[in-house]
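WARN no homologs supplied; continuing
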Amino acid sequence: MYLGFQKKTIAIISAVLLLFFAAGTLAVLYPIYNGSKAAFENLDALLESDPETALSYYNDVKFITFRKKLSKRLHKYRYDVAKECLAEGKLTEAFESASLIGTVELLRDFQNDVVKMYLAEEDGMTKTFLRRYLVQSEYHKNNNETDPYIPYRSLGAVGRGFALSVNPDGTLAFYGNPPEGLTEAAARWGTVAAVAAYDNSVVAATLREKSAPAVGFGDNKGLRISVGAVSTALSPSVSETHTAVTLTGGGCYATNMQSTSGWSVVLSAAGNNFTAGVNWYGRIRITGDDTLAEEVADWSEIVHLAAGGDALYGLTHKGVLRAARSPFDVDGTEGVADVAAAPGKLIVLRKDGTAVTFGYNAAVSEAVGKVSNLAAVYAGVDGVLVREATGQYHYFHE
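OK structure emitted
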């Protein structure tokens, strides 16, 4: 009898404690539930009309049920924004929004629209920009119906008093008066894929069976040693202060130790004391100059970069030239197919196959004006190199 009384007492005490625990838990969770519900409803109601205010409620949604609803809602919202921007031709904004879509079905649907746009597009630069996104988004791993993406490589370069270009077989052709020892050094480089030059220095990306090492030539021994550490070089860029090498994996290596960690870029350019890169979505990355980074923060849809001294130039897939800190009034120029720069110098290739120079003397400007059917241009401190669509090069110097 006493034992039964003990059991009943324990049961009552346990029930009371459980009741207190449940009440305490409810007292803690109920405000979180209500707060999460209100925050989610506010976010859901404002997301279409005022996304900035809507997203301010994001951290207030703490209850797991509403967190799951929030995740689905945001994925659908980002999908809708990506589709809308794609339809309006705002490709950078479309790709950036699509990168945040976490639902496979929605992402694949968006990518299918990009493929359709790509296949219907006739402009070469726009096709390159669209294909670049598809490669970055790994769409090609499951869908091989699109063309392979060919990354940008600089096939020509201009130093002081000389120029060089990459032949189809990976050897180099020289123009003007190359520095003593350059031709001999280049003969030992093997297959060259891309080149860059500044003054008397040359950097090349080469191809081996299992690597793509960078090699350098010039009086600066440190430059040669630094670029020699790169084994996955895609395309180099050289300035007065340093070299930047775009890597095959999407990174960037800067010889002046500027931080490019975390970069995922398709092309980089070395300016004076800064390195610029363009990411897969057409946005600019800058290291070494925070003020310049702010100046180019609104640039988008960039397919090509060129740096000359303190100036930076970007070319959109629509053929619009953007310029920051340029001594020339060229920002916003339309109908551009290619651009190259050196300190205080600039050459712009128009879509009609003609080119115009800035900062060079009359002899160079007149010579460039007489050639047509051009496909690419390269700039140096005292001369330019231009390539015709046939593959023939012309070197003009001061």
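The two ends are 115 Å apart (CA to CA).
OK
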